[in-house]
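W.,

You were right to be curious about this one. When I first looked at the sequence I had no strong expectations either way, so I just let the prediction run and decided to look at it fresh. Below is the sequence, 137 residues in total, followed by the output.
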Amino acid sequence: MRIKIQMCVGGCGMQETNDHLFLNCGFFGQVWEMVLKWLGVYTTFPSNTLEHFVQFGSAAGYAKTQRSFMNMMWFATSGVIWKERNHRIFQGKENTNLQLLENIKHLSFWWHKAKIAVCTYQFYDWCQNPTLCLGVV
C-alpha cells in the first residue's frame, strides 16, 4: 500500500502537516500575521499548533474574558484556514489572504454576537476594533 503525500495548498511546495498548514506556510502564516495586526497583538508564537493555541489564548497575560476572546479568534482563524484548504482541494477555488481575513472578521463577529444577549455595535465597529467592542482593551 502506498501512502499519498499531500502537498501544501498554499503554493509553497512543502509537504502538508498540521503545523505547516496552520502556522508555517508562507501564505497561511500571513493570515495569522494579519489577524494579530487587526487585534493589535504584537508577539511571536511557537511553530507547534498546540503550543500556538495555548500561547495565543494567554498572550500578554490576559484576564479570563480576554483569553476567551483570543481563543475564539484562534478557532475562527483556524476554521477559515481549514475551509480554504478544502476549497482549494475539492473545488479548485482560491481566496486571497485579505479575503480570508474578512471571513475571519465575519465569522468571529457572528460567533460573538450569538454568544451575548445584547449587541450594541455593528460589524463595521467590530472590523475597526473588536477588543474595544468587547470592552477588553
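Here's what jumped out at me. The chain has a mean pLDDT of 88. And, maybe more interesting for your project: The two ends are 54 Å apart (CA to CA).

Coffee later to discuss?

I.
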